[in-house]
Design brief:
The chain is α+β, with helices and mostly antiparallel strands. It is built from six helices and eight strands; from the N terminus they run H-E-E-H-H-H-E-E-E-H-E-H-E-E. The chain has an eight-stranded mixed sheet with strand order 1-2-3-4-5-6-8-7, with helices on both faces. A hairpin with a 2-residue loop joins strand 1 and strand 2. Helix 2 crosses helix 4. The longest helix has 16 residues. The termini are far apart.
Amino acid sequence: NIYDALQTLLKELIKIEGNRLMKIKQLTTSDAKELQEISIETFTATFSSQNDMNDLNQYLEESYSIDKLTKEIENTDSTFYIFYDDNNEKMSYLKLNIDSAQSEDDFDNALEIERIYIQKHHQKKGLGRQMFNLALKKASELNKRQIWLGVWEFNENAKLFYTHLGFEVAGEHTFNLGSDAQTDLLMSRKI
């Protein structure tokens, strides 16, 4: 119907980046397969060289099944976005959580960036900053006081990037990658 068509159009934001057209799409349950593909691709590319493949595969199966991703998309306190280039290639994706969807209870009136992943060949081009700016905009619209995220203690590039954006370490939690209990640093920033 026309209402659904208009709603879909409103969820697709178009931005101009230099001379390049970039589309940002807010996901619905019909996008679960596409989300699964980019989730597996980016997580594997980011962490496979530093982790046991059995643990990695177990994590991918548990965390990125269509059923699990569909439930996450259905959660009204979570929002997913995929960023596309002008050739409609998936460049990155972002998952934002508020209220009950947050993975930790330690941050009052906050927005969590639970996932921010960029395809390797699109890194170091300013896309991470644009994704962060979208999160910051959403947090401001929702009158949140802070943004926070978890980052693997050994992901030096990400830690440096977040520090550059004004994030500071505020704690840590355990992240289970298969049978491997890893430490994520919790980083936060006031808005």
